[in-house]
Amino acid sequence: MQQVGDAVVAVVRGSRAAAHERARTLVAELARVDDASVSIVQRCPDCGGPHGRPVVMAPADARGIGVSIAHAADQHVVAAVRGRRIGIDAERADAPSERVAALRELLGEHDDLLRRWTRIEAALKADGRGLRVEPSAVDVDDASATARVPGGDRVYALHDVELGDGLVVGLAIER
To answer: How far is residue 84 from each of residues 98, 108, 172, measured CA to CA in Å?
Structure first.
């Protein structure tokens, strides 16, 4: 586990279920409650499926904690923060050339394309609308390390998280 500002971030190897379990324990640690009491729900606003922005539903002491989960092959990254929205995204540093080409087509040329993408995706996850917002429209200010998502008034502080494990990780925390 790593502290990034007020947030906690952890990398998990293995299944998606293990990543979701680790998210529950991070929330429990921040709320100082038993992890068995933590309920996190993901519900897609479009299709109703079990994906989308995770929301802490219980216990009451934990409801104000923002949580986010990212998947990169068999590695997963989870993040949580008290009282604010949070988003995290991860890409394998050795991403396949097809993935890099698709990101280049979407975002254009950038010195560190994977880092740029993880910052944008983290901001979109924190916003809650995800890819329903055009990623290339996200306003990333590299000088202030902030992002704004069109159609919203929130500002997200951007962090590059060094977790090793061959991952490029971007974190967005609501200011």
So the answer is: 35, 31, 10
Please count the other Cβ atoms lying within 10 Å of the Cβ belonging to residue 39. 14
Cα gap 29→4, rounded to integer Å: 15
What tens digit of pLDDT does each residue of 111-121 get? 899 999 999 99
Report pLDDT for 111.
86
Nearest by Cα to 145 from 122, 167, 168, 111: 122
Count CA atoms closer than 13 A to 64's CA, side-chain side: 7
Number of domains into which the chain is organized: 1
109 band by pLDDT with thresholds 50, 70 and 90: confident
Can you give the residue range of the structural domain that contains 23?
2-174
Nearest to 102 by CA among 86, 83, 121: 121
Question: Is beta strand 155-161 parallel, antiparallel or unpaired with respect to 167-174?
Answer: antiparallel
Tokens of 62: 């934990």
